Amino acid sequence: MSSYSPNQSIGLLLVLLCCVLPQTITAAENGEPDFTIAKLQNSLLDHYNLELAGFIEARTGFRLQNDPYEKDASLAEARLQLDLARDLGWGLAKVKADLGHDLVTDEMIAELREMNLSFSPLDNADVKVGRQVLTWGTGDLLFINDLFPKDWESFFSGRDDEYLKAPSDAVKTSFFFEAANLDLVYVPEFNNSNYIDGSRISYWNNVLGRTAGRDYVFADEERNRVFSDCELAARLYKNIDGMEAALYGYYGFWKTPEGLDPGSMRLIYPRLAAYGASLRGTLLGGIGNLEAGYYDSLDDQGGDNALIRNSEFRFLAGYERELADNLTGGFQYYLEVITNYDEYRAALTPGTPQADEYRHLLTMRLTKLMLNQNLRLSLFAYYSPSDKDTYLRPKAHYKVSDHWAIEAGGNLFAGSDDHTFFGQFDRNTNIYAGARYNF
Amino acid sequence: MHDQLRAAALIFVACLFIAPFSASAQPTADEIVAKANLAAYYAGNDGRASVTMTITDEQGRSRSREFVILRRDQSDGGDQAFYVYFKKPSDVRKMVFLVHKHIDKDDDRWLYLPALDLVKRIAASDKRTSFVGSNFFYEDVSGRSPDDDSHELLETTAKDYVLKHTPKDPASVEFSSYSTWIDQATFMPTKAEYLDKEGRKYRVVEALEIKEIQGHPTVVKSRVQDLAAGSETVSVFEDVSYDLGLKEEIFTERYLRRAPSEVRK
After folding, report:
1. CA B68, B73, B76, B78 torsion: positive or negative?
2. Which of A155, A193, B20, B139 is deepest in the core (most CB within 10 A)?
3. What does pTM read for this prediction?
4. Cβ distance of B126 and A325 shorter than 8 Å
């Protein structure tokens, strides 16, 4: 696709955008255009039993300060998403793909987000095979037992929330029993998260001992041996009179490359096992949740390997409720505890910043709905008193009509140190805006 | 002889059943409200409808919502479960709103976001807030508990009972009182008018069209007008059916992630 210039693909999307515009314009003139997306949707449904939906979107964002390692533009892209589904009677087939162009990296966007088949082989069993987005757990933008891939680059640069979850190529089998329900997810070839490698977001680089970006894009050693680099995730859950209880297990690898191979100077994905539990239910007119997990870093169980992340306990407690008319507040406390902290400290390479044994994190979400719920103002804030850093996500989303929506927001980072989780991103503080036509 | 005895016995049994009704020719306000609650919100053991809502704001701009709603009753007048599957507009397509309505405690609510495969638990909000941005409130969709108000029979017209309802906890609602018109024959509420705290009529909920479906009088078109804001919402209910034998498990997390055939068609 190297012959495909960015101007061409943006042009193509503009043409598509012009195709959808007449629908809103001619409607006012009583004129019925020969081609509309609605007509195409109806004819696909009538002739092929195919459901078509999707959107076309343009988004742009920029850094609010100079970043010596990155471009000023943090986001500049146009994309078309097509979502096709067919009811087969005995099952459901689904394909969802994104096409477009990313002007920040000057690369074409061609992403298959979903391609799966779901069916029920037994009365009490469901199967979903193929590329799919998977989510479980109780945290709000905090994940303990959800060890499915994330896209942190999308999250920090202002794409739609949908893109925080990266798809998995998996087989998900669910069993439903009177005693409890069981989900088993098998991923034959490890799906890592899209981590911050420096290509579009600058980060703290422990090897260099400084912030780096496009001058040092951290490559990883992919785990790509089918079957031997596999992942297994399980959830056993039950709704007990409105209280949702769950147990989780995971066997696979750290989802972000939490190890370094000193020979190749590439990042690696060390082995990981995780166990956890969660509870969620109504509490004092709102929703309360508790979740805990133990991350067993199988390649560094002693904690004395400086190049591989130690095992950790993770814990979160959350509460959400309506604060006033159309105003909802959510609050979470989250804790990470490094185990074998003495070994970690002793093994630490001199000069490398030392992580605290306990990382405390507080989050707050405020959501206000206005103008007949067409305007949604929201703020999600992370603040760590131990790391002394913060990350704010303000956002305004307005539904102009049943098809059009506009959105603007920011990703604001601040911290007293350059090496903490959010503090390392402070030169990436950005604002963005976008428009979307849904069909 | 046997026949005479049998006839006498039948008359006796019939009297047993008929007596309570004929004795109370004029039901009390509480009895009317209880029957209206059952007629409006508990028809059949379960039900299904395809709903199209058209919301028109004060400037004449309109937006629409299309969804399929499934309902299952635990018992008449008791706990219920609702499954709302959105079809339009496109940005909420395939989202599911699940409610376990409880009489004696807060409802349990979930929202399923298909793009994230996320089952989100939602705090039980004020029931008198807008349902999906329309002029309908949550309470208009799932019913207001008869115990929340005290009821008074104002008059009996040729066709309707006219009642006045005063909230027991005035601070919890935006109205000072409301009146309802309830059909004497079917006990279906056909109109409700709400007075604000200053006593001005500001909100009208009306059944515009009622049809009998499977023996149940059913509202197939209704309208809410917000006289103060100048906006209104019209709901049209199509493909209504009752007693489909909906399984209890449809109203669980399993079917949030995998919509049942009852809503997909």
Report:
1. negative
2. A193
3. 0.90
4. yes
> Could you tell me if residue B1 is inside a domain?
no
Q: What are the tokens at A210?
A: 């400084």
pLDDT in tens, B108-155: 999 999 999 999 999 877 788 899 999 999 888 888 999 999 999 999
- Burial A163-179, CB ≥16 within 10 A → b, else e: bbbbbbbbbbbbebeee
3-state SS, A383-412, equals EECCCCEEEEEEEEEEECCCCEEEEEEEEE
The torsion angles phi and psi of B153, rounded to 5 degrees, stand at -85, 115
- Which CATH number covers residue B116? 2.50.20.10
User: Class of the A6-438 domain?
Assistant: mainly beta
CA B219 to chain A, closest CA, distance in angstroms equals 25
Coil, strand, or helix at residue A344? helix
Q: What is the ipTM of this complex?
A: 0.91
Calculate mean pLDDT across residues A396-420.
Answer: 96
| Contacts with B254 from chain A: Cβ below 8 Å | 126, 174, 176, 181
The stretches of A144-236 forming alpha helices (DSSP H) are 152-157
- Structural domain including B64 reads 28-264
- Show residues of chain A in contact with B122, CB under 8 Å: 287
Tell me the pLDDT tens digit for each residue of A59-68.
999 999 999 9
The domain tally of chain B equals: 1
Instruction: Give the start-to-end residue ranges of the domains of chain A.
Output: 6-438
Helix/strand/coil for B5: helix
CA distances from A111 to A76, A77, A363, B200, B245 (A): 17, 14, 31, 57, 42
Distance from CA of A5 to the nearest CA of B (A): 30
**Helices vs strands, H then E, count in chain B:** 5, 13
Q: Say how many residues make up chain B.
A: 265
- Partners of A409 in the β-ladder: A395, A432
Partners of A115 in the beta sheet? A95, A131
With vertex at residue B137, the alpha carbon angle to CA B134 and CA B143, rounded to the nearest 5 degrees, is: 140
Residue B194 lies in a domain: yes
